[in-house]
Amino acid sequence: MNVLATGGAGYIGSHAVLRLLRDGHHVVVVDNLFRGHRAAIDAVAKAAGEGAKGRFGFVQGEISDSGLVRKVMRDNAVDTVMHFAALTYVGESVNQPLQYYRTNTAGALSLIESAEACGVQRFVFSSTAATYGEPPADKVPIQETLAPAPINPYGASKLMVERLLSDFNTAQKAAGKPFAYACLRYFNVAGCDRSGALGEHHEPETHLVPIILQCLLGLRPQAENTLSIFGDDYPTPDGTCVRDYVHVEDLVDAHVTVMNALKPGDGRIYNLGIGNGLSVKQIVQSVERVTGMKVKTKIGPRRAGDPATLYADPGKIAREIGWKAKITNVDEIVASAWAWFKANPKGYAK
Ligand code: UFG
User: Fold this and answer.
1) 274 with 244: CB under 8 angstroms?
2) pLDDT tens digits, residue range 64-105?
3) Cα(98) to centroid of ligand 1, in Å?
4) Whose CA is nearest to atom 27 of ligand 1?
5) CA distance 254 to 318
């Protein structure tokens, strides 16, 4: 297929692009490099090798620049959009909501309009478990039937796009035009390409696994590289928050499976997780097993907006299109991240 990957210079986007290239697809990336990395594009090209020459392009630009996006779509005969580009920090979204609605919601709207103008047939959207908000304890593991109730602008900005896609799809169907979409609600994506080609580099870094690894490498700005555990008085087995950590390679595998399964008229919503929850302390223990090093921790205050327990029921995607996470051992997830962080302590920075 001919895929436009927005945000292809980011963590998840770059992993998806490499996978698509390895599968023989044609991929063009549009990324404004605000938080993505040119070096990630270079790393994808290198890892994809000679065989991907002529099948991979990169354009620096905004998804809301419809002139540019439409030219890219037409020049590359794009039939599928994978829309990864977004702002993704919950805390930042609370302080700068308009930026989140502009980039995530208005940006997606513009992209979908371009997709319509250029006759794009498939749209795979990076949504988030943040659309669920804080589910009641008896609703976890979370099924897609749970009514979305985001508690921050990040989750709301993504949920609006889900609605937009649904309404657009209804209209396309009524008009007899071939279109299909999927909203993939990510849980906690972690790990790095196991060949070592690609990694995870966020600035600022807020995610648990990279923060712990940076602590071990002495790279955190905080005193003595100590992990602050955000609360140990939650109603969970060890008092720390429980999340569903899914390997980035499995996550991008779900994108490819979904893309291949989409038939005209489809509108699919799937959770992407492994279906098992691990606590912050269990992640720390995994890192200690994998690295053989002791992680210094302290118990800090709770972080606003953190639900106690959040993990997926990934049964729907398994039943409907046969996708299941293959990497279910958290040590394997952590080991893949550790390999990349050790080899690239500055991430993609020179
Ligand atoms: N945590 C710490 N200390 C840290 C960093 C994180 O204790 O220094 C804890 C958090 O409190 C949380 C867990 O580690 O309990 C995981 O935190 P992350 O920030 O790695 O991930 P979140 O679960 O907060 O966020 C993820 C995605 C978001 C998405 C959200 C949906 O990264 O994009 O799930 O709820 F919005």
Assistant:
1) yes
2) 999 999 999 999 999 999 999 999 999 999 999 999 999 999
3) 22
4) 188
5) 10
CA 89–ligand 1 middle distance (angstroms): 10
- Closest by CA to 281, choosing from 330, 337, 241, 309, is 241
Neighbours of 16 (CB within 10 A): 31
Domain ranges of the chain: 2-190+245-273
Could you read off the pLDDT of 213-248 as tens digits, one per residue? 999 999 987 667 999 999 999 999 999 999 999 999
Q: Whose CA is nearest to atom 11 of ligand 1?
A: 230
> Is pLDDT of 15 > 70?
yes
pLDDT of residue 305: 82
Q: What is the pLDDT of residues 36-54, one digit of tens each?
A: 999 999 999 999 999 999 9
Chain mean position to CA 280: 20
Average pLDDT over the chain reads 97
The Cα angle at residue 200 between residues 195 and 201, in degrees rounded to 5: 140
CATH of domain 2-190+245-273: 3.40.50.720
Strand 26-31 relative to strand 56-60: parallel, antiparallel, unpaired? parallel
Residue 325 amino acid letter: A
Counting atoms of ligand 1 from 1, which one is nearest the CA of 190? 20
